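Sample pair:
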Amino acid sequence: MDKLTFEGILETALYVDDLDAAEAFYGSVLGLEKISRAGNRHIFFRCGPGVLLIFNPAETVKPPPAEGLQVPPHGTRGNGHMCLRVQKGQLQAWEDKLKAADIAIETEVLWPSGARSFYFRDPAGNSLECAEASLWNID
């Protein structure tokens, strides 16, 4: 039997209390394409080949209705983390864009591999990072 492997991460989830602020930030500031929004429960964005799920934890801990999709309750409190893959050579342009939108750059890191990344926060306090794929030795 062949060894089973994953092709990658299809979805990444972050949790926020204010979906309106998240929608403005991820849609307008970061320029992600909104796929859908379900009231005050969630917003889904396209992010490269994957999907970023933004959930309101006060809603996702509730069991699904009997007639709805049977997604198990889930959620978390506190700041999450996500790293956004940036095209080679565009890291500084992203940093400049965020600074122009009054988004504070929390820290910059020069990794032992020679890769560089920087960190900032979304309106909910989630830690976001921008990095080139070479951070993880990916082409």
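DSSP finds three helices and eight strands in the chain.
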